[in-house]
Design brief:
94 residues; mainly alpha; 2 domains; binds zinc ion
Amino acid sequence: MRWDDHGCAGCGKENINKNGFLCADCQTWEKLYGWHLHHRGLYRYNEAMKEYMQRYKFNGDYRLCVVFQRELSKVVNEQKADLIVPIPVTSTTM
Ligand SMILES: [Zn+2]
């Protein structure tokens, strides 16, 4: 399921206070460090995504890379970010 743009303005997670504003975690981060993160997930981590990740990352079913390839490529190329960080697996799970 695609993650819409509603939610915390910093991290994108569901914001029980008000969409478009910072969630409690991001507000705390801003108080502690004077800034907050600007990141977002593209998809919700629901049961279907959990199963996909299990098969792709942990069972090595790399044929599944094509499922999100086009959309991820488009989103990455649209970003005006200083840094895009893919989240790797640990050497144990690799
Ligand atoms: Zn947040």
